[in-house]
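Case study: F-box domain-containing protein.
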Amino acid sequence: MPTLGDWDEVCMICAICPSGGPYELVDEEDLEDVAGDIAAEVKALLFEGKGRPAAYADSPNDGLPEVLLDQKESSSIPDEELREIVTEALASSFSGADIRRGLPEELPGWLPEGLGAIGPWHMRLTRDCVAIGYFGERSGEAPIRNDGRFPDGQHVETRHVRKYSCGNFYATVRQGTKGALLEENKISVCSIYGIHNYQHHPNFWLCKECYECLYSWMDQENLSDKPFSDRELYEVVHSQFARRSDNFRGLIPGVNYGGIHATIGMHQNHFAPGRRESRSIARGIQAGRRGPDLIPHIMEDFQCWMFMRRDKWPEPTQATSTFSTFEPKNSTEDPLPLIATLPSDVFISITDYLSLQWLLILSTTCQRLRAVITDGSFLRRFVRQSVHFGEYNYVLPATPAELVIANEVAKRWLGESGVEHAGLDPFVHPEFPYPAFISACIRSDSMKNRRRIRGIIEQFKELWRKYRSAGWKVDRFYPPNELAEEFKGQTSSGGI
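Here is what the predicted structure looks like once written out:
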């Protein structure tokens, strides 16, 4: 348990602290060590022909074709010079004074809008969150028995909370009689360390966006006629074999968070611990980029996209609003591949088993298949199916607030394609440019993070399914008849 100063705890879905996450690429004290590690990896990639280090064999692109670094035109850079190039680029990201000490008025200029910290440290800006547990009317802390047991989920309370510090919240938000949000000073103890009871505190919190997406995406698959509830979520979290406090700042042990947990130290201030490889940095150095011009490559390798807001749908541009089809050369000599001779309905049924990535790989096998697969009507139908019922379903808005944002962007995609929007949901419009839109989503940092979070919620869905079929894995609860009256006043079945 941290005992000095304050610390960050993180949402158990997105694994990001309420302030939004890091604001610096690297801690100044770690600069030399990080630069040395990156320089060694870049040297191995560019000049020693080692390709991807074995440590990164679990990259999402594994097993698929990728563009390898061009080593033919690379001349060896001395080790010390290579290290200086990396050090200079990292140092160029510093804002001139440590934000916690110097309190600058603005975040670093290289930090894109929506990525990482939502404001300078001294402004104490945090996202709204949702707290679930037992708070009562006094200490805000759950009633834990001397033997370490705590209440089951029957009487949990759900609160909309603000004013975060060290895993706890010091204000609740409720809707007034005229619809306005009213803030009350009321403590909600959600730190895994509690305040007075320092072991395995059961109250927990999620950022409000993750809470809403959790219920929206969970409801898309009916596990039974019974609706999901915060009572169940509470018991799912606390009946696992491993406890949250056995892991990183409140994450669920056994859930794959995509490497973001490495950024969780005493504070979640730096992107560098999330680094998995140095391939983009190597490409940037090979292309002659130096200093601040290398920062975008550093951000890619540091996986900064994991901290990007998940509601920034890509805008259409001239480069992405169209998708080029392929016309084969006229030739009577080359025989058609067997798959290209199948009836169209059979061919379509076969391709339904492929992901978009593998469909495009199939299109590289011959000109005839390339022409069939990149045909506008075929590809639009395939990608539309993938969006509404398959692997790209995560790009659709999940909450009412997201629906407003996403629909406005989707209307602009239709407009760029020369399609009149006649009041239909733009995502179901028959002429919506799905291939170009999904191509832009795949490259979007926001949509990458959205996909990561959807994957985490799919893991929660599996935990929930097992809970409903088999019950608690471990019984850590005491029965509701032992619960003090002050904790029975409010119950919740999901929603705030």
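For the exam, be able to explain this: Residues 338-450 form one domain.
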